[in-house]
């Protein structure tokens, strides 16, 4: 049996809801407001992926332009695989599942109408498949960037590989960010599974399958801990800095500007250090950084200038000796031969 997260068309459970009073929800630990806020934040993250969609559109146009000349190139074939994986990303439409789940949270006649646990398990299974697809896109984009960078190092058609490399690298960065957020979304939604109730006698999940409690460990993402911690630290720093800047008034900023002093000696020393650094550049470093190829137009131009510079200047000052004799010399030699005969 195919796993639930790996199915292209997953059968959705029926839209069944159950009701609970606000006091009973507070007593039993059902956090309705937190559940709704988490879904709103996830939907907002899906709506702010315009840069990724723009780079995906550029990638599809690059594949169309390069498919004739680079059809057997490994980097181009990796780009084609990346394009197919991104098509599956568009077909999933995970945002619609989150919007539908949020629409089931309603307030009717002083009672909360909440979705069943089956509906939440369906969204978690789709999120699990979405995370697995993001890992595939991340790995394929890394492979494609490796082959494109190798082509640039060789110097063969490097100008054609520069724009695809930049596009694939942007997709790689956005994919890692989305994968990091996907693990956070899954862990947040998984906390509300025991708070919801099953509606109906038959559960939606099969007996031989279950949802992992932690998506990060299931995906085996080894870099996620470091990046996730840095992501949280950046958010905290931005929050603290925004609060501090709101508290600082314009008068305090002016006083801080007046208290600053600049030493002229430090500026002169920095200028001298820059001059000394520019003098220390050697010719060996320039030779190492240059990559020459037979297809480079700049190399052809250098050879033409070298050939033209090696020829002597044709200014009339120096006469060029000819191999042939003059006409008068030729006639005198013929007459001398006739007399000898």
UniProtKB/TrEMBL annotation:
Residues 5-190 form the Nucleolus and neural progenitor protein-like N-terminal domain. It holds the Pfam family NEPRO_N. Residues 267-341 are annotated as: Disordered. Residues 280-295 have a biased composition (Low complexity). Residues 305-317 have a biased composition (Polar residues). GO terms for biological process: positive regulation of Notch signaling pathway. GO terms for cellular component: nucleus. This is Nucleolus and neural progenitor protein-like N-terminal domain-containing protein.
